[in-house]
Amino acid sequence: MERALRSAPAHALPEALAAALEGARPGLAGVRLLVNDYHSRVLLPVPPLGAGPGDGTGVLRVRGTDAGRAFVSRRPVRHSPRRDGGGAAPEVLFVPVVSRGERMGVLELAGADPWTDDELARLEEVGEVLGAALKVAWHHTDRYERARRRKRLTLAAELQWQLLPGHACTGDRFSLAGHLEPAYSIGGDNFDWSAEHDHLALTVTNGSGTGIQAALLTSLTVGAMRNARRSGADIAEQASLANDMVHVRYGGREFTETLVMRIDLADGVVHVIDAGSPRILRMRGTDVGSVDLEQQLPLGMFPDTEYRPQRFRLEPGDRLVVVSDGVFSARTPRGEFGAQALEQATRRTRLQDAAEVPLTVIDELIEYHEGADLDDDAVVVCLDWK
């Protein structure tokens, strides 16, 4: 399988894998790759080569389907459909496609014979191999990106989505996941991370404005932070340099409220700069509360601003949930979503994997809005400290 994927063009991974699988298991009735949409609420089939955009045929919901269970749990799930005239149709197996903890989609396999436990274990590994190959191929072709779009993105959304590092990342000491909602109406919120051998860098940004203006401002901020971080600057220097870049461009008229963090992997010490509105909640056992920090000036408000990191320590089993103001300050005719609702939503995730938490909190926020569109972007990032 690895050789087939390595030798295939980036745009032809599903076909290369299907051919290899059919050669290894004669009688395989069909192979299909489905990728999750931007909201991670449906799984969309990658159309055959040469086909136009998908027409919605074969779309599967994440919630309430076997394919969705495989996607969420990151474990293979069997499905045995019944034919209309009675009798069993070929058994269908849904295999999660995962890259370093990030859920990329689901592989749908239909076969006439039941799958053995040994085959399930091998196919789970095939899903990981495909996920790693797909993560690389994604940057060489638009085929998979097109497949996950149910409608055309605005230019602002295009700029904003390209900034995201992914949806999840795991290591020996931590599990990390993030979600941006909504995808198609951009208000400048963003998250970014980088996992190194000795630390984890994490930022959550809440830019001002909407549309292209917000996307460009956030792009400048995230680009400046990455440039400083990749040059070896500590978080105080990262914040200071990004502040200067934004102020030079906008003269204090626009700014970004940003949370900048560095988590030392050896001892769980968190170094953090709170430059604005994003908030941190910590769940320790069943206790949930805000991490109190000294709020400093947003990036870009004044030139030559000096930022001072603060510190706190994580204990094994701690969960951090970081949210933008589009979550805790969201308002409806019922009032503000607020800290209490956010704490309750966080407490209810205590039995969930970190990868599920951001969307669970977002779903509660949408339910609070009673299905109405959100007025502002909402970012949720979850960090589990092992």
Short description:
By secondary structure, the protein is of the alpha+beta class. The chain is 32% helix and 29% strand.
Q: Name the strands of the widest sheet in spatial order.
A: 3-2-1-6-5-4
According to CATH, the homologous superfamily of the largest domain is PPM-type phosphatase domain
Query: Which range does the strand content fall in?
Result: 25-35%
Kindly provide the name of the CATH class of the largest domain.
Alpha Beta
Order of helices and strands: HHEEEHEEEHHHEEEEHHEEEEEEHEEHHE
Structural class computed from helices and strand pairing: alpha+beta
Report the biggest beta sheet as strand number plus sense, adding barrel if it closes. Answer: 6 strands, antiparallel
Spatial extent as radius of gyration: 22 Å
Mean pLDDT: 90
Could you name the ranges where pLDDT drops below 50 across 5 or more consecutive residues?
none
End-to-end gap: 33 Å
Instruction: Please name the CATH architecture of the largest domain.
Output: 4-Layer Sandwich
Number of strands: 19
Question: Judging from the principal axes of the Cα atoms, what is the shape?
Answer: globular
What is the helix content? 25-40%
Number of domains: 2
